[in-house]
Every structure is written in structure tokens, then in C-alpha cells.
């Protein structure tokens, strides 16, 4: 048992030893100076001050503390009391996080949660910069409160305009911003009732509502496109390509065979979702004819040769870098590249010559990659197939398109897949079984259905082929000593490991203490929990413990996939990271024009950080759009009773996921049965301080829908009054576990790949 550090005024008057002073410094939420330390320990006189000065010098020399602004001291790599922060976005629980603009410490900076903005102030979005006051929760977690916004980020609000007697009102679309804005007639800009608008905040008046001026009219909220449009503008997604980029795309043409390998006689096929518009990868396999590799396979993965069309420092390149990746909504795609490329020249359409960057892969009978070779080629897809078509053909019911390919193309693909799957199982990847929503729209753009995504072996086949190609790309870069961008996924931090270990121990599971955890350690726990009441809870808490995958020129491996090296190669149409890898491989192997230039090689760290940010931005925007579509789907069922589970626990309430359709919503803490609730972060629970009533992640619940607002995406629930708090499936109400989007490399059996991003992890 460790002693809790005492606060100022609670120490005896005798001079403290070094450990006691260090404990006090570590327990402070902000850096402290000699005056605070002397006051805390009741030190006075010149002798005590000199002794304290020498003691602090010793601590600094030992590396136990660092001296910062105004000679104040704090634990090593601690953040200052006031700092400039950049907002990185909101997590699935609505918590807004940020990172310091400057960070000189080792590794990633501590996580910073921003307190809600003051009433009347617009909420913060990704990319906003603020001057904030910080309070340290622990070495890896801070809480911050905005002092003021910086860089002109203040003043723009997305909302819906409504007329009023004194002019008009704008109701913000951000569910965290409850303050309406006053629009005087002179500032209306001809906005119509119910129109979605971007408005500039005006200087605050002393009394009354804050005022705004309509800057841009975006269309009526009754239009089906409004939901994704709100997400686009809320998260600042670029939607218009510069004219120069459009001209470059329009003038592009398929190259000749000169300098390329002719792959047009190979029956390469694309396998995608039924609603896919671009086909950026094709596959083929045959038994390896080499007698030295009995039972082995020769695979070919051909990827659209985006690097041929998008050259470094071109207008197309600058636009693609700004976007970082494509963003997928139920009703539209915000593409990384103009349609002339993404849906035409870089789409591997059947029967049409297309430039490709391909990799030959030779695997043994156990799925282990033996060798590989990259080529730039010209290909002609034999067929555009869907996952459903391929799976039906494999199951004995081929349609007219798949039947001629069943024995010559589809069967060999499954043969190679069986070996790759064996290799995956043997190395032990992290396998989490968590649901995902798929929103299906009708012909009018309205939500027709929200259901779990189906997943077939055909999905896994493509995924394993893409993973194998990505491994070959990373291996090739390392062998050539060529700088590039790796897809890295670190093991859980020591803090998260310990928190998870304590939680699992409390419910009867053991996470071993070993020098380095492996995915198999988690899989063993998941296997043991499978089929029990703890299954969902264990999956959720293991998911939450995982690190976030990123792009980096420094290879630390991919924990979730249990791979030593991994780089995204297979989707350069929709990920800038893949384009960088293509360019690096072209330069490394002397494969013609479009290779990585010196400037990009020198700036790979900055490129990796930028596209990691755009990836997080896209995921948040996609999730927000799903929330709004879901709220629209539920809007006419207010008052209905649903069953679900607690999918998230935060300081401000409980997130609930419905069993029926996977919809997420919030029970505000203020509506829970009368008590003062404390957030136990380690136990993933809200605990009543008077009654001991506990609401824990994973618990089964019955809830009543009390609000579903398509405008904000806000879905609110309450516990049914008739049943009080006696709901749940355990001995005590809600005793037994919000899913964030999974970290890279965590595969979800039983579901299709998310948001049309079907492969490559």
C-alpha cells in the first residue's frame, strides 16, 4: 500500500527528506516553486531556504525533476501550467482532446482533455488552437481549460437559421453547443428558414444572445445531403479541388507499355463491395510451379499506379496531401483525388488497360512469405466481382459472372488464402468481436435500415492478400535502406497495461506480467471469455487499452497484426501514405518516373504526423455522420423502450448501444437515480457515493428514448421510471461493460470492413 501525498499545510515543521519533497512535487497538479514547497513544509529562515535550494538542485541533477518557467519544478517531461494547445478532435465519448504545440520530450506527449467551453462560446474543433491552463491528473493525463482562442480560429459556427421577431436565430449543429445566436436582419444574407448556414460570430454585446452574421448558405436541412454536409463543414474537410489539380487530372492518360511489364493476359480480378465506385486493387493466384516450394503459392497483387499520375509537388499532389485520405459517408465520398482519377484512370475497370504497380508474392504451404518482386505494369481486369458473388460461388452457387472463373480464378485465390490464414493464426493477431453499424439509404436518401455489417471469407481473403503485399512493401524498403512511411502500432502503454491488468483481475481474468506483451496474451483472455456474460465487457476494455496506429518513418512494428514490419501499399487512391510508399519503392528499385523526392524524404516525420491527423479527422467526421443518420432513423420512436448495453462510461454520463440496431446514445449523469456519482476510470464505472450504486461498462440495460435530434446527432436515453434502477442482467443493477473505433490491426470477426475501407488494415 502506498501513502497518499499530503497537500500543502499538512506537513510537520521538520526539514523534509528528498523523497518527501519529490512526492509533494509529483502530487501537485501544476509546477511548483520554492515558495510553495517552503509553505507546505512550514520552512522558514535562511538556513532552511539554502537547504531547500540545494535539495532541489540534487533532484534536478538526478533527473527526478525538471526546472521550467520562473524556476518552478515538475516531474520530467511535465507540461507547463499554461500552454498553447492544438485540438486533435473528440473521442467516441465526446471528450475533446488536444496536444501541446511544442513538445520536446521523448515519445508522444501526455493526453490532454479540454473542459467544455463556457456558455456562449462555440465548441472547439480539430485544428483549433487555444491558450489553456493545465492541471496534471497523472504523468500521462492532463485536464485543460481554455483561456482564449488563437490564430483567428474563433468566430465561425455551423447551424440552422430560423426566423424570429427580432430578426432570426441560428441553432448550432454541434450537440455540445446549446447557445443560440441572434441574427439581425442586416446580417441575414438572405438565409431562408431551415437553411444550413456558416455564420461568423460578432463582437459580444453586454446583454442578450451573442450575435452572428450569415457568411455562407449551404442548403436546406430537409435535403438528404444535409447530414453528411454538416459533418464535412464541422470537421473542415476540403471538398473543392483547385482548378490546376482538376486540369492535371483531366489531361492524364493511360501510359504505353514502354518500360512496363505486360500483365494483361493474367486473369486479375477486383473484389469489392457492391456499392464501390473505384476499384484500386486486383488479385490473382496460382500454385507455385517451383518444385522447391511444394504446396506453396504464387500471388499477384496489382494496385492502381497513382504515382504515375500524381507527381511530387504537382497541384494534384498538394491537394492529395491536404486531404490526406478519402472520407466515406453513407451517401457520398469526399475523395482524396479528383473523380477523373479515382473513378476512372486509377479504377481497375474490367476489360480496360490500366497502369498498375504490382507485387509478385511467393508463399510456402504455411503462408510464410518467401520472396517478392515489385513491377510497374499494364493490366486488364478480367472481372469486377463483389464479396457476395465470390462467397456464393465458393459456397456452390455461382452466378453468370462468377461461374466461368470458379475453377481457374476463385478456387486458387481461396487456396492461397487458406495458407495465409494459417500463418495469421500461428503468429497470433489480436481478434476482437465487436459490432459495427451499416447505414443503408433508400433511393430518396433516407435511412432505410441500420444493421450490422456482414463479413464473409471473401472479405478475409482480400484482407490477407493486402496484408501480405503491405508486409512485402515494408520489407523491401528496409532491405533497400530507403526511407518511407511505416504503419506502426505500439503495444499498450505500461499505464494502460496496469490499469487493464487490475480491472481484469477484479473480474477473474489474468493478464500476465511479461517483459513484452503479445497479441496472443489478449486473445487467450478473449477466448476464455467467449460465450460468457463477460464477453462484451472484456472485448471493450481490451480495445480501450490499445494504442492508436500511426504513420511514421521509424519502424516499431505492428502490434495488433503481430508483424515486425508493415507499410500501407494497397490503396493509394484513398490514402496519401500509400502514395508515399509507392514513390519510395519506385525510387528504391529504379522503376521510372514519380519516385520519392529529396524534400519528401527529409520531411517524412511531418508528413506522417499530418496524415495521421487527417485519418483521425476522417474517422470522427464519419462517426458524426453515422450518429446523425441514426438519430434521423430513431426520431419517430421517442418514448419507445429498448434493450442495450453500456458501451461507454464518462464523467458526464453513460453511453448506451442498442441491441436492435447498434445505435449509440447518452444517459446524462444528471438523470441517474439520486446520488453523487464519481467516475472510476480504472473500473470503467460510475459509482454512487451514497448508495454504492454502480453503472459499469458492458452491463445490459433497458432504456427509454427521450430525444433523437438529426440536426446535432444527439440521441438521449433515460432509465425507465417504472423499473427504477433495477435493470441489468446481473445480481446488482448494471454491475457487469462504448466502443471506440478499433485501433489499426485489430480484426473484427463476423463483420465487414468498415466504411467501405475494405482491406489492408
Automatic annotation (TrEMBL):
- Cite the S1 motif domain residue spans from the record: 639-720
Q: Where is the signal peptide?
A: none
Q: Write down the chemical reaction(s) this protein catalyses.
A: Exonucleolytic cleavage in the 3'- to 5'-direction to yield nucleoside 5'-phosphates
Q: Which CDD domains match?
A: S1_RNase_R
Keyword hit for rRNA-binding: no
PROSITE patterns in alphabetical order = RIBONUCLEASE_II (PS01175), S1 (PS50126)
**Does the keyword Disulfide bond feature in the UniProt annotation?**
no
Q: What is its main location?
A: cytoplasm
- Could you list this entry's UniProt keywords, alphabetically sorted: Cytoplasm, Exonuclease, Hydrolase, Nuclease, RNA-binding
Question: Which segments carry the region annotation Disordered?
Answer: 722-761
Q: Which residues form a coiled coil?
A: none
Q: What is its EC number?
A: 3.1.13.1
Q: Where does the UniProt annotation locate this protein? A: Cytoplasm
Q: Where is the composition biased (Basic residues)?
A: 752-761
Instruction: Please give the family membership noted in the entry.
Output: Belongs to the RNR ribonuclease family. RNase R subfamily.
Q: Which HAMAP family match?
A: RNase_R
Role played: 3'-5' exoribonuclease that releases 5'-nucleoside monophosphates and is involved in maturation of structured RNAs.
Please identify the protein, giving its name as recorded.
Ribonuclease R
Give the organism, scientific name: Azospirillum isscasi
As recorded in Swiss-Prot or TrEMBL, the protein's gene is named rnr
Amino acid at each position: 500500500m502506498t501513502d497518499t501525498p499530503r497537500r500543502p499545510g499538512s506537513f510537520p515543521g521538520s526539514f523534509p527528506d528528498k523523497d518527501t519533497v519529490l512526492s509533494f512535487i509529483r502530487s501537485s497538479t501544476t509546477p511548483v516553486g520554492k515558495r510553495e514547497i517552503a509553505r507546505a513544509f512550514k520552512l522558514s529562515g535562511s538556513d532552511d531556504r539554502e537547504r531547500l535550494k540545494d535539495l532541489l538542485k540534487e533532484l534536478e541533477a538526478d533527473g527526478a525533476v525538471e526546472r521550467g518557467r520562473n524556476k518552478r519544478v515538475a516531474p520530467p517531461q511535465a507540461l507547463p501550467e499554461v500552454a498553447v494547445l492544438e485540438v486533435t478532435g473528440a473521442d467516441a465519448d465526446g471528450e475533446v482532446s488536444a496536444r501541446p504545440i511544442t513538445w520536446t520530450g521523448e515519445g508522444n506527449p501526455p493526453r490532454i482533455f479540454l473542459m467544455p467551453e463556457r456558455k456562449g462560446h462555440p465548441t472547439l474543433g480539430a485544428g483549433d488552437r487555444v491558450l489553456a491552463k493545465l492541471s496534471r491528473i497523472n504523468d500521462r493525463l492532463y485536464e485543460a481549460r481554455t483561456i482564449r482562442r488563437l490564430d483567428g480560429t474563433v468566430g465561425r459556427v455551423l447551424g440552422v437559421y430560423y426566423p424570429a421577431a427580432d430578426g432570426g436565430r441560428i441553432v448550432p449543429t454541434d450537440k455540445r453547443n446549446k447557445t443560440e445566436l441572434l441574427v439581425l436582419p442586416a446580417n441575414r444574407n438572405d438565409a431562408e428558414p431551415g437553411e444550413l448556414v456558416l455564420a461568423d460570430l460578432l463582437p459580444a454585446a453586454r446583454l442578450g444572445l451573442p450575435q452572428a452574421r450569415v457568411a455562407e448558405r449551404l442548403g436546406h436541412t430537409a435535403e438528404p445531403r444535409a447530414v453528411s454536409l454538416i459533418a464535412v463543414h464541422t470537421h473542415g474537410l476540403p471538398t473543392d479541388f483547385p482548378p490546376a489539380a482538376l486540369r492535371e487530372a483531366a489531361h492524364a492518360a493511360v501510359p504505353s507499355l514502354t518500360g512496363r511489364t505486360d500483365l494483361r493476359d493474367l486473369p486479375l480480378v477486383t473484389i469489392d463491395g457492391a456499392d464501390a465506385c473505384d476499384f484500386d486493387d486486383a488479385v490473382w493466384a496460382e500454385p507455385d510451379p517451383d518444385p522447391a516450394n511444394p504446396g506453396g503459392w504464387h500471388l499477384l497483387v496489382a494496385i492502381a499506379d497513382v504515382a504515375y499520375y500524381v507527381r511530387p509537388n504537382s497541384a494534384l499532389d498538394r491537394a492529395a496531401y491536404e486531404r490526406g485520405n478519402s472520407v466515406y459517408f453513407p451517401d457520398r465520398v469526399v475523395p482524396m483525388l479528383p473523380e477523373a482519377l479515382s473513378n476512372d484512370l486509377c479504377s481497375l475497370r474490367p476489360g480496360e488497360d490500366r497502369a498498375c504497380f504490382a507485387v509478385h508474392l511467393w508463399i510456402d504451404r504455411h503462408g510464410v512469405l518467401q520472396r517478392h518482386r515489385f513491377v510497374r505494369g499494364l493490366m486488364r481486369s478480367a472481372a469486377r466481382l463483389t464479396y457476395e458473388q465470390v462467397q456464393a460461388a465458393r459456397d456452390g452457387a455461382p452466378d453468370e459472372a462468377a461461374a466461368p472463373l470458379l475453377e481457374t480464378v476463385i478456387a486458387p485465390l481461396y487456396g492461397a488464402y487458406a495458407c495465409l490464414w494459417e500463418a495469421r493464426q500461428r503468429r497470433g493477431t489480436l481478434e476482437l468481436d465487436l459490432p459495427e453499424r451499416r447505414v443503408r439509404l433508400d433511393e430518396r436518401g433516407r435511412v432505410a435500415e441500420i444493421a450490422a455489417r456482414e463479413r464473409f471469407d471473401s472479405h478475409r481473403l482480400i484482407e490477407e492478400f493486402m496484408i501480405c503485399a503491405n508486409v512485402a512493401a515494408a520489407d523491401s524498403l528496409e532491405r533497400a535502406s530507403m526511407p518511407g512511411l511505416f504503419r506502426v502500432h505500439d503495444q499498450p502503454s505500461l499505464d494502460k497495461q496496469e490499469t487493464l491488468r487490475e480491472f481484469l483481475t477484479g473480474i477473474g481474468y489474468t493478464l500476465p506480467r511479461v517483459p513484452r506483451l503479445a497479441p496472443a496474451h489478449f486473445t487467450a483472455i478473449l477466448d476464455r471469455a467467449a460465450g460468457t456474460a463477460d464477453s462484451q465487457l472484456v472485448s471493450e476494455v481490451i480495445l480501450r487499452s490499445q494504442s492508436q496506429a500511426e504513420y511514421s518513418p521509424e519502424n516499431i512494428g505492428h502490434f495488433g497484426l503481430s508483424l515486425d514490419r508493415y507499410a500501407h501499399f494497397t490503396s493509394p487512391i484513398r490514402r496519401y501514405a500509400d502514395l508515399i510508399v509507392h514513390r519510395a519503392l519506385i525510387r528504391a528499385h529504379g522503376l521510372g518516373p514519380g519516385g520519392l523526392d529529396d524534400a519528401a524524404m527529409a520531411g517524412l516525420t511531418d508528413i506522417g504526423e499530418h496524415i495521421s491527423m487527417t485519418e483521425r479527422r476522417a474517422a470522427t467526421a464519419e462517426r458524426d455522420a453515422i450518429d446523425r443518420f441514426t438519430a434521423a432513423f430513431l426520431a419517430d420512436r421517442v418514448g419507445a423502450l429498448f434493450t442495450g448495453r453500456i458501451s461507454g462510461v464518462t464523467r458526464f454520463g453513460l453511453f448506451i448501444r442498442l441491441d436492435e440496431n447498434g445505435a449509440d446514445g447518452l444517459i446524462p449523469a444528471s438523470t441517474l437515480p439520486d446520488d453523487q456519482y464519481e467516475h472510476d476510470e480504472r473500473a470503467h464505472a460510475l459509482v454512487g457515493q451514497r448508495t454504492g450504486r454502480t453503472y459499469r461498462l458492458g452491463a445490459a440495460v433497458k432504456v427509454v428514448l427521450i430525444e433523437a435530434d438529426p440536426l446535432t446527432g444527439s440521441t438521449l436515453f433515460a432509465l425507465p421510471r417504472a423499473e427504477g434502477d433495477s435493470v441489468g442482467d446481473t445480481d446488482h443493477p448494471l454491475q457487469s461493460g462504448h466502443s471506440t473505433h478499433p485501433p489499426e490491426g485489430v480484426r473484427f470477426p463476423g463483420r465487414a470492413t468498415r466504411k467501405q475501407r475494405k482491406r489492408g488494415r
